[in-house]
Design goal:
Blueprint: E1 20-24, E2 28-33, E3 36-41, E4 44-46, H1 48-55, H2 58-62, E5 67-72, E6 78-85, E7 88-96, E8 102-108, E9 128-135, E10 141-148, E11 151-156, E12 164-171, E13 174-175, E14 180-182, E15 190-195, E16 204-211, E17 218-223, H3 232-238, E18 248-255, E19 258-268
Parallel strand pairs: 1-5, 14-19
Antiparallel strand pairs: 2-3, 3-4, 5-6, 6-7, 7-8, 8-9, 9-10, 10-11, 12-13, 12-15, 16-17, 16-18, 18-19
Length: 269
């Protein structure tokens, strides 16, 4: 464990004298009916005083850029502590077990520019960097991962569980980003999972959804092999979406039953 870099005074960091702010990482909902308010925290009904306790710390997260954000659950147990800009990791990161022991330590890429606008598109939002170490609940080290500017390098020791760290969508050897695609080229897309170790025995499924205002949504499921048989024109026809109608095309990727990533495709009909 690289303890030195967790100090605010560490000379290796570009940040100096960061403030520490508290945040409750909980699900909040409220509604008012006939002048009567109801409040929930993590799906449980609470009174307004309890709701306000948790809700008030959202401003701490929204105004954190950068700061050291300490995230707690509804029982005031520390979950995470990290250098953050709102919900983006921009420095060291620590996650804890309920007993207070470290569960995970790591580093996100720092932002040395001093400019914090649009950091997602500028490549400074939660980009993994350097060493990430996982621990058992008793404090023993499980394994470490090494990253460079968001790219996975290696796992030491290599784990037996199949785990995807990135999924690329490619067309003719080029990564699809914001390019406009024609419908007849979709079947030529290649969905390529990148694995952390040699165990690539995991079920990757693809769901493709087409939707338009005033029409039923149509969604179909494919494997990596059967995706080449997709027929988007037929999908549009099944829900009577005309060719001149503004339509949303979304590709969802799952590893087993776990949602992994979505791609919004810019399509020309």
């Amino acid at each position: 464990m690289l303890v030195q870099v967790f100090g605010q005074t560490d000379s290796n960091t570009v940040y100096k004298k960061l403030k520490t702010k508290k945040f409750y990482s909980v699900g909040l909902s409220s509604q008012t009916e006939n002048g009567q308010g109801t409040y929930e925290v993590n799906g449980k009904k609470v009174n307004k005083s309890a709701y306000d306790k948790y809700q008030s710390t959202w401003k701490n997260m929204e105004n954190c850029c950068p700061c050291i954000l300490k995230s707690y659950n509804e029982n005031d147990i520390l979950l995470r502590e990290a250098v953050s800009c709102t919900d983006c990791g921009v420095g060291w990161f620590k996650e804890f077990y309920p007993n207070g022991n470290l569960k995970l330590t790591g580093f996100y890429k720092e932002n040395p520019t001093g400019k914090w606008k649009d950091i997602w598109n500028r490549g400074y939002c939660s980009v993994k960097n350097n060493q990430w170490t996982y621990f058992k609940e008793n404090g023993d080290t499980l394994y470490s991962e090494f990253w460079k500017d968001g790219e996975f390098i290696k796992q030491v020791p290599e784990q037996s569980v199949s785990e995807v760290w990135e999924i690329d969508i490619m067309l003719n050897g080029q990564k699809i980003d914001k390019q406009e695609l024609s419908i007849n080229k979709v079947k030529n897309l290649k969905i390529i999972p990148k694995y952390k170790n040699s165990n690539t025995d995991s079920l990757i499924t693809i769901k493709f959804k087409v939707s338009a205002v005033g029409h039923r949504m149509n969604e179909k499921e494919f494997t990596l092999n059967t995706f080449k048989d997709i027929d988007i024109n037929a999908m549009l026809s099944e829900v009577e979406i005309p060719k001149d109608k503004k339509t949303t095309f979304v590709l969802f990727v799952f590893q087993g039953s776990t949602f992994w990533k979505s791609f919004y495709l810019d399509m020309k009909k």
